[in-house]
Amino acid sequence: MKRRTMIGAVALAFAMSVGTAAVAEGLPPLEKKDRYKVGFPQMESNNPWRIAETKSFQDTAEACNWDLVATDAAGSAAKQVADVDSMIAQGIDILFLPPREEKPLIPAVMRAKAAGIPTFLVDRSVDPNVAKAGEHYVAFLGSDFIDQGRRVAEWTLENFKGDKGTIIQLEGTTGSSPANDRKKGFDDVIAKHDNMTIVASQTGDFARDMGRQVMETLLQAHPDVNIVYAHNDEMAIGAIQALELAGRKPGDDVLVVSIDGTRDALQAIIDGKMGVTVESSPFFGPLACEVMGRYASGETIEPWVKVEDRIFTKENAAKHVDEAY
Ligand code: GZL
């Protein structure tokens, strides 16, 4: 650790002396070398999206000369913090962190920086009022979750056939940046339309079975629901199961709309049970490799390396279902 901190300080002094912008003020540099010890502390593996993301890092490791240290926090932010601290102690060269929730991982991000380890946040971010890209971590690699929520709402407004929309919202993991922002993006658009009402909004923790259970409960309280907005496809599939168990016909008397682009969601769209899913790609391995290479070459990385998302509907789901995860 001491050696690494000293290298960091020397590298920073060199960069400042020759006037290059090799690293933004205070960020640990990444020296160029043949192989890197890369930390990837995954938050959980309870859904196809998470599994696809982890596989993307594993599949990239050899091509990018990584000795990958990957862990699984099984849905616990506290365990994810412990996993980060363990990786710091192991002397990783770089950290790619998908923070499960916006706040609990911030101290670990600070400890990585103090240890001279550059951090990139992938797929979720941290509270921007506390930790900032370019200062505490290098950059966030991920989608625009507000825009995803906005696009789902706009598609819903264009394609809902009824006069009055009665909406149930299934939120993602409480305190996570995708849940916060997908809610904001959707709610802000819906609020502008008097004929659309969100009658309930509750977390299903991005999980299929919890999504099903929450939908069963909310359906009892709101039998007049005719739109279900799920923050991810797993909860949307769970909601479809709950609706069918209750004798409803998703796609006919309830419009189900979602985000991610999983294989099961594309199949549900093909089967007429889901209306739309806005893509949120889990394939971060190659992007992490490319951005890491730029950083090691001394480039200043933009604070948000934004991933562009497609939209899947009955017009194109069949074309893409075979490539889906
Ligand atoms: C989005 C990611 C979300 C997915 C969910 O980048 O954080 O977490 O949308 C996953 O499926 O659980």
Structural commentary:
- The protein has 325 residues and is an alpha/beta fold.
- It folds into two domains: 2-142 and 282-308, Response regulator (Rossmann fold), CATH 3.40.50.2300; 145-279, Rossmann fold, CATH 3.40.50.2300.
- The chain has eleven helices and twelve strands.
- The protein has helices at residues 2-18, 48-61, 77-90, 106-114, 145-159, 177-190, 208-221, 233-245, 263-270, 285-296, 317-320; strands at 36-42, 66-72, 94-97, 119-122, 139-142, 165-171, 196-203, 227-230, 255-260, 276-279, 304-306, 311-312.
- A six-stranded parallel β-sheet has the order 2-1-3-4-5-11, with helices on both faces. It has a six-stranded mixed β-sheet with strand order 7-6-8-9-10-12, sandwiched between helices.
- Helix 2 (48-61) crosses helix 10 (285-296).
- It is elongated.
- The site of beta-D-galactofuranose has 14 residues, from helix 2 and strand 9.
Write the SSE topology.
Layout: H1 2-18, E1 36-42, H2 48-61, E2 66-72, H3 77-90, E3 94-97, H4 106-114, E4 119-122, E5 139-142, H5 145-159, E6 165-171, H6 177-190, E7 196-203, H7 208-221, E8 227-230, H8 233-245, E9 255-260, H9 263-270, E10 276-279, H10 285-296, E11 304-306, E12 311-312, H11 317-320
Parallel strand pairs: 1-2, 1-3, 3-4, 4-5, 5-11, 6-7, 6-8, 8-9, 9-10
Antiparallel strand pairs: 10-12
Beta-D-galactofuranose (GZL) is lined by residues 47, 49-50, 123-124, 142-143, 178, 206, 232, 234, 259-260, 280.
